[in-house]
């Protein structure tokens, strides 16, 4: 089989010449596994078309270069059941030789946190080797943004808002809960296929409030802001090392939801509701995408993959090539990844109960 | 004027970029790869682009674009081979081509049908590119005028094509479309995620059935089975008539139809959200309505090939508008295309609202690379069509196992679940029955394809309209009845009225004789039973959920239709057209082999796969089918099996795909490809 893989790679290099340069980074050492001649399968529980695909396709060739033995890294898409199908599949896999990894996303974490009946996986069993964060920005049409008094959103409380929502239990619960906390009357129009459709709805004037994750905001909304047809309202913020919400490094000039909430009458940055929002924000954004080895992975494998992702991060051009594709967010390995995993996959029972109850009351969504 | 002054230099730059030998070389490479993949039904541009993705990282943008555009552009060209020669819709873009292209192949005119299709594709691609060159500059504000009510109206217009394709008994066609819509609602609702006709205990159905499976099941399987039963070649004429030149002449004689259908293709492709999946049906409907003598449609009218084929390549060009200008992919392959563009170079091309301002030259390069790829692809296809058309003279029993292998593999790729194969056979059985009893399969498929957009847009438009009405009556009315909606409404009404009047003459399923009452009546009752159960199932969803409304509405309308049909069946004599049954008279009745033994072969493949995994099952299936059903020598059967398996494995390995595992794989850890 190995000869096959080699010829295939050679053939492909010829076919699509000028592909990535296969620089040889000597990684072989006392610790670690050698993946020479092997094929690493990276399972993504979404279709080829989503944000996770973009993220995995960005990392796959870099990871291939950085792993000892330069294995071929292929991204395998296993969509279904809101990503729980792929995650359930991964849960059943036993560690073999380190050629199987899994990429999870906020959409995989939320059903886990909310106790969705389809979830048969457990994050505690897996071994995290990379955690990638992102951020999100909410924005308004200019005439509504003008009703905000600095950071005080009270002026918006009498307005009727329409928001294109991908699904009550998806990442969209972070913005919708935030807006509700600000006292905004936001009606969710369901059945949006992706956040891009939500932005289109905003551009067509059907929706009058929207949010995008950072990279989509940069490419899709910044031109609208420049043209004067959209005004940023707030970001969800980023986490500092102590776990506090601070300004998003990609958007240092836009206030965070925390600041807006503080400035708005009736919105509290403490208490049950705030804690619930913050817990789901952390699961959905700063610890949004993670790479795992399956249950029972050897220490050698974990060390190898961690070192490989660190080598990717240490590339001289990493800031440049990742900035546009992933945004300026921490790409965490080792301890930091562990911390991100812990904060992204645990919420207090109170926060969970609050959100489950809120979903039931607001959308009639029952999670049992 | 100012806009054009800015555009001209960019257009010049674009041609400067394109007309470099290395860029053209990459383009041709992409075209050849695209043709190779597009030839196989069910594997569209998504599979091809995924293959290229690993090489896009850091690649020179114009080279990467040439490679990718070359591939994407020609998939709707080469999938015509499967549609015309085998009656298998290669992708959603060529479903309508099957209706008249395949009957032409059966009459020994495959080469003519193919070259007419390719000439139309080429022309459509060029018209699309020319139109886009100007239109792209002014497209943004126009596209933004298409709000949810407009999208809903286009969906309804697409559904109105059912009127033309309904067949001899119009209500039967409408019920068929409704059945397609109900099958399309299976799974989690888009609004609040309530389940329709499925349960979390059997997770397969919660994601709904995929178009690949329904398209292949409803069109391909009935044709394969029917041809197999007759044990002959596809072409009834031993001598192939109609060379490729004749097809090109056919196209030229209908050039204005081709122009109009190309424009339809670009315009519908431009509108984000519909993904162009209805374009070919709308073009087909247009071709029917503008033809004086409609008697040949459904049995090999070349205009029925020229119309859809002109539109489907033009649609790819139109689809670039939402993709490049809004960053919203019009289709699955476009979504990967966007992702891949981000990987090119240092990521300097950002698809989205800024594309025209910052990268107009790149935008034009993409548009004209697409056109150029069409030219190259078409020339290759026309050159090959004469040779490939000879496939239709081979005894079909030799082709069938190979085809079945391909479509099983394609079906499995959609969900990577053994249930994909079961669903394929299930839908295939429905397709066989619909074909037998003269229920319009095109109507069913249109219903299925548009079920999702119809439901989503209806719910969204209603919700947004309610919010507008709360602000003021006038604002609500303005929102719902925009000028575009009113125009579309008029077109739809005219099309339905005209269509229903003509439907009786257009036999999408060919002429079917009537026979006894019993079998058609039993099928009628089975359909009614399913619809009634779907109604009951949807009504069990809590009342506040929007997910119940649409299936209940559709099922309700269908039940009325079913009631009328049942009454008619009870009153009319058994010679009435309502009792059409292919097993009574004609090809199927005279077939050498029975329906059930033929179907059993494929059920056998499914059962073996569930036990041994796909590859082992396939080995047994191919060999025994060749040996015992086709009756060839043991040596030939063995060689066929080896070749088939080698082909399958090569393809899966190239595309990095797995095969369905069986029970055996639960217990034994086998190496690829047996896993």
Q: What's a quick, concise take on this entry?
A:
Chain A is α/β, with parallel strands linked by helices and 368 residues long. Chain A contains 14 helices and 13 strands.
List the main descriptive attributes of the protein structure presented here.
heterodimer; A: 368 residues; alpha/beta; D-Maltodextrin-Binding Protein, domain 2; 2 domains; six-stranded mixed sheet; 14 helices; 13 strands; 42% helix; B: 675 residues; mainly alpha; 28 helices; 2 strands; globular
What this model shows, in words?
- The complex is a heterodimer of chains A (368) and B (675).
- By secondary structure, chain A is of the alpha/beta class.
- Chain A has 2 domains: 191 residues, Bordetella uptake gene, domain 1 (D-Maltodextrin-Binding Protein, domain 2, 3-Layer(aba) Sandwich), CATH 3.40.190.150; 149 residues, D-Maltodextrin-Binding Protein, domain 2.
- Helix content of chain A is 42%, strand content 16%.
- Chain A has 14 helices and 13 strands.
- In chain A, strands 2-1-3-12-4-13 form a 6-stranded mixed β-sheet, with helices on both faces. Chain A has a 3-stranded antiparallel β-sheet with strand order 8-5-9. In chain A, strands 6-7 form a two-stranded parallel ribbon.
- In chain A, helix 6 links the parallel strand 6 and strand 7.
- By secondary structure, chain B is mostly helical.
- Chain B is globular, with a radius of gyration of 25 Å.
- The termini of chain B are far apart.
- The chains are: A alpha/beta (368), B mainly alpha (675).
- At the A-B interface, helix 1, helix 2, strand 2, helix 7 and helix 8 of A face helix 3, helix 15 and helix 20 of B.
Write the layout of secondary structure elements.
The complex is a heterodimer of chains A (368) and B (675).
Chain A: H1 2-15, E1 39-44, H2 51-66, E2 72-77, H3 84-92, E3 100-104, H4 106-114, E4 127-132, E5 136-140, H5 142-145, E6 160-164, H6 173-181, E7 185-189, H7 195-203, E8 210-213, H8 214-227, E9 231-235, E10 238-239, E11 245-246, H9 257-263, H10 272-284, E12 289-293, H11 299-313, H12 318-326, E13 331-332, H13 334-345, H14 349-363
Helix pairs in contact in A: 2-11, 6-10, 10-14
Chain B: H1 2-18, H2 21-38, H3 45-52, H4 61-86, H5 95-106, H6 110-144, H7 148-160, H8 162-165, H9 170-184, E1 187-188, E2 195-196, H10 211-230, H11 244-253, H12 255-270, H13 279-289, H14 303-326, H15 332-343, H16 355-358, H17 360-389, H18 396-415, H19 418-436, H20 441-471, H21 473-480, H22 483-503, H23 518-539, H24 549-571, H25 595-612, H26 614-629, H27 634-655, H28 663-667
Antiparallel strand pairs in B: 1-2
Helix pairs in contact in B: 1-17, 2-4, 2-17, 3-4, 3-15, 4-5, 4-6, 4-14, 4-15, 4-17, 5-6, 5-14, 6-11, 6-12, 6-14, 6-17, 7-20, 7-22, 9-20, 9-24, 10-18, 10-19, 10-20, 12-13, 12-14, 13-14, 14-17, 18-19, 18-26, 19-25, 20-21, 23-24, 25-26, 26-27
